[in-house]
């Protein structure tokens, strides 16, 4: 289909699920109150390391409404989940809840009270007396590095050429250490499970706030020894996840175990405070960057060695070098990753895992290197531009980083920038302008879709993927409307139920690229099915072949001849619908490296008189192939930039050093950008479809905007203040000493 004929793909459309969300009709995991339901509330460890000495439940048991109290001496035995991503089975924390008396982190589930009401469960949970034998916890990366030798992640290491000797020999070089703080996913919708076991049929229904109904079904089935078709997982609406809801966490297992033990539905919400401990986070990283160039600013060596914090329960490497290995031209390069354990919950993917902290470090270092060789930061990046992925020795399927840098710079007015730090003023304020590249893998996974042409002339598309707030419902409706040539208003989309045909996990920014080919093929299959019915129906098409018939504007017929509606065809044969299914592979051709690109341009305003820092303007030039829906896609970049701002300036999950307890585990103390912090923001899509990647030419857009942003902010702050801050979040006190105002 030629692009100019497209009616829906590429059009800015409002979200089709918007009215349901606005009216409250959309139900989230904890909105389901089932008949005879019980409510569970956790008791959470108040030490970060050690053992449980004793749990005294007698006072709690005597409280009104209490039904049962679970803990390590009273919990059904379950199977640990196999960690097999390829087979769609994965937990984040390998340990089962209540597995033994050991405490690995503060906020770990140590008991769970089930009662007739939420309030009764919570009140009783507060009365469960737990005594501990505490050990000294480690809750900071620096301490962990003092006490443990990091474990290298060999699988992700990449080396080419002779980076160490090339770095030593080069005429220009820099070396710097960058630190990024632990961050916590804070989706609006808290983690919650509403689980209902039906003992008669041996079925488990689980309403779960999850980015993967199929993964959750597979994993829960394995842990409980059930067949997959005995478990139904539902998540029609999710109040976002950011990676924290990709896989199964202990609360979901606990809720399922409780409903099976008690024979009544159980609802368990994770309190916001425990979302800082027991449902994942982005780990802290320490990254050493060594860059070197020749006299002309061509990179001669790039070395990016990183280590991140992990839990005592699992090694989760944060792949900070995942973009470094291919973003710029360089023959001598190494990236390496290692982990070091501490007493925190298990880290997991958080929007652009690896890339977000990694590009903060790399793009800060690129700014430092540009200055060392006396080049403009945009020009320096262009000098090291490459259209080949040096880590795989393959061309990129489609790359417009050059256009992102050049057109972004033009739109931003970059030519007006003066290089000297502190040299751009506006009244009392000093302006700082910074740039950074952004980058993310273009990923695709296996997907299926089902399209049903109904006798009421409506079309139903269904799939066991989910819309985590990104616009998947809308994009799927656009794809189906486009493939069928029918108005988008006639399409209904049903997602978020593991009983539907297999659909992908909502992660890695891969859903749009993965699902659209399946939707288009399923739509065509449904039309073929309808053609068969039309021919068999007799009448005008009796002697026709399928190829003689075409489907236009919701009706079927011979071009220029009589057209029959779907309803007319189906009703004559007393059929309710014509169904088409399709299955598409996520496998990519081996001729290319597939990635998305972009550039952020950031303006900060620094008023040294009152130490006021504001990010005033962000322009993001984004190269993600064909943009299926510029409205929802721009929303993704805006949200991603907000998270990047959080990373640059605010977000830091902190622990009390002595006790190992989290200290800022709520919305008041854990700072995220508010509306007042958000800059004037311009998203500029480059619109180059990538047909080497998919038939629609669309790569994903969910995560890329978070990458590079913190680097661009740090670079802008350096330009304003002359202070190179290598630890994020950047705090005002780091900028207050010895500032430029004092020197005029
Ligand atoms: Mo994303 S961090 O794969 O939800």
Describe it for me?
The structure is a single chain. The chain is α+β, with helices and mostly antiparallel strands and 744 residues long. The chain has 3 domains: 3-25 and 445-584, Aldehyde Oxidoreductase, domain 4, CATH 3.30.365.10; 32-136 and 188-239 and 245-276, Aldehyde Oxidoreductase, domain 3; 354-443 and 592-743, Aldehyde oxidase/xanthine dehydrogenase, molybdopterin binding domain (Aldehyde Oxidoreductase, domain 4). The strands form 7 sheets. Strands 3-5-1-13-10-11-12 form a 7-stranded mixed β-sheet, sandwiched between helices. Strands 7, 8, 9, 14, 15, 16 and 31 form a 7-stranded mixed β-sheet that branches. Strand 10 (192-198) and strand 11 (203-208) form a beta hairpin. The chain is globular and about 85 Å long. The protein binds dioxothiomolybdenum(VI) ion (MOS). Dioxothiomolybdenum(VI) ion (MOS) is lined by residues 211, 241-243, 246, 349-351, 353, 507-508. Dioxothiomolybdenum(VI) ion binds next to loops.
Strand content: 25-35%
Strand order of the biggest β-sheet: 3-5-1-13-10-11-12
Specify the CATH architecture of the largest domain.
2-Layer Sandwich
Main sheet attributes: strand count, strand direction, barrel closure:
7 strands, mixed
- How would you classify the helix and strand content by structural class? alpha+beta
Task: Please compute the radius of gyration using only Cα atoms.
Answer: 28 Å
Number of domain modules: 3
User: What is the general shape?
Assistant: globular
User: What is the β-strand count?
Assistant: 31
Low-confidence stretches: 740-744
Q: What bound compounds does this protein have? A: dioxothiomolybdenum(VI) ion
- Portion in helices: 25-40%
End-to-end separation in angstroms reads: 62 Å
Number of helices: 18
CATH superfamily of the largest domain: Aldehyde oxidase/xanthine dehydrogenase, molybdopterin binding domain
Name the CATH class of the largest domain.
Alpha Beta
Mean pLDDT: 96
**Which fold name is given in CATH as the topology of the largest domain?**
Aldehyde Oxidoreductase, domain 4
């Amino acid at each position: 289909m030629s692009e100019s004929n497209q009616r829906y793909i590429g059009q800015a459309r409002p979200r089709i699920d918007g009215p349901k969300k606005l009216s409250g009709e959309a139900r989230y995991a904890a909105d389901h109150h089932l008949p005879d339901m019980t409510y569970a509330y956790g008791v959470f460890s108040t030490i970060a390391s050690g053992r449980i000495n004793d749990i005294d439940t007698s006072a709690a048991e005597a409280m009104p409404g209490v039904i049962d109290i679970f803990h390590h001496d009273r919990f059904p035995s379950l199977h640990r989940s196999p960690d097999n991503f390829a087979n769609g089975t994965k937990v984040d924390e390998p340990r089962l809840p209540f597995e033994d008396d050991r405490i690995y982190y503060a906020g770990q589930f140590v008991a769970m009270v089930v009662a007739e009401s939420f309030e009764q469960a919570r009140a009783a949970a507060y009365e469960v007396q737990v005594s501990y034998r505490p050990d000294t916890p480690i809750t900071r990366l620096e301490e962990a590095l003092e006490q443990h030798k990091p474990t290298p992640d060999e699988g992700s290491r990449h080396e080419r050429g002779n980076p160490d000797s090339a770095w030593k020999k080069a005429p220009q070089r820099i070396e710097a250490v960058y630190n990024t703080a632990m961050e916590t996913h804070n989706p609006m919708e808290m983690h919650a499970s509403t689980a209902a076991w039906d003992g008669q049929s041996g079925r488990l229904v689980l309403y779960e706030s999850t980015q993967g109904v199929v993964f959750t079904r597979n994993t829960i089935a394995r842990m409980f020894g059930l067949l997959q078709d005995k478990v139904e997982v539902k998540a029609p609406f999710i109040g976002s996840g950011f990676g924290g809801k990709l896989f199964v966490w202990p609360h979901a297992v606990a809720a399922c175990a409780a409903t099976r033990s008690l024979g009544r539905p159980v609802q368990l919400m994770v309190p916001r405070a425990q979302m800082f401990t027991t449902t994942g986070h982005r780990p802290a990283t320490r990254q050493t960057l060594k860059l070197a160039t020749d006299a002309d600013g061509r990179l001669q060596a790039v070395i990016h060695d990183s280590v991140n914090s992990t839990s005592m329960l699992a090694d989760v490497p944060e792949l900070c070098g995942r973009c470094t290995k291919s973003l710029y031209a360089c023959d001598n390069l190494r990236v390496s990753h290692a982990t070091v354990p501490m007493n925190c919950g298990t880290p997991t993917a958080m929007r652009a895992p690896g890339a977000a902290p990694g590009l903060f470090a790399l793009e800060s270092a690129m700014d430092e290197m540009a200055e060392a060789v006396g080049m403009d930061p945009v020009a320096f990046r262009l000098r090291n531009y490459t259209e080949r992925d040096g880590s795989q020795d393959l061309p990129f399927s489609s790359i417009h980083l050059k256009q992102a840098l050049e057109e972004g710079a033009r739109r931003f007015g970059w030519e007006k920038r003066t290089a000297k730090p502190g040299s751009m003023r506006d009244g009392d304020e000093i302006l700082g302008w910074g740039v950074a590249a952004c980058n993310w893998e273009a990923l695709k996974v296996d997907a299926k879709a089902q399209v049903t042409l109904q006798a009421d002339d409506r079309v139903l598309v269904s799939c066991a993927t989910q819309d985590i707030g990104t616009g998947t419902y809308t994009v799927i409706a656009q794809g189906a409307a486009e493939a069928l040539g029918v108005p988008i208003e006639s399409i209904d989309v049903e997602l978020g139920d593991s009983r539907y045909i297999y659909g992908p996990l909502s992660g890695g920014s891969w859903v749009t690229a993965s699902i659209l080919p399946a939707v288009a093929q399923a739509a065509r299959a449904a039309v073929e099915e309808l053609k068969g019915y039309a021919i068999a129906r007799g009448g005008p098409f009796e002697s026709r072949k399928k190829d003689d018939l075409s489907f236009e504007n919701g009706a079927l017929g011979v071009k220029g001849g009589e057209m029959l509606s779907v309803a007319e065809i189906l009703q004559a044969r007393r059929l309710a619908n014509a169904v088409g299914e399709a299955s598409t592979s996520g496998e990519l051709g081996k001729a290319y490296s597939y990635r998305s690109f972009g550039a952020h341009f950031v303006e900060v305003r620094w008023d040294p008189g009152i130490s006021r820092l504001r990010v005033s303007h962000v322009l993001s030039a984004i190269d993600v192939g064909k943009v299926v829906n510029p409205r929802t896609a721009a929303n993704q970049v805006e949200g991603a930039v907000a998270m990047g701002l959080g990373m640059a300036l605010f977000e830091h999950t902190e622990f009390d050093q002595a006790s190992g307890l989290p200290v800022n585990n709520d919305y008041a103390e854990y700072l995220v950008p508010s509306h007042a912090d958000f800059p004037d923001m311009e998203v500029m899509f480059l619109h180059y479809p990538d047909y080497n990647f998919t038939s629609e030419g669309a790569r994903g857009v969910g995560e890329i905007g978070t990458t590079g942003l913190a680097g661009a902010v740090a670079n802008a702050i350096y330009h304003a203040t002359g202070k190179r801050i290598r630890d994020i979040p950047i705090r005002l006190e780091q900028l207050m000493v010895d500032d430029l105002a004092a020197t005029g």
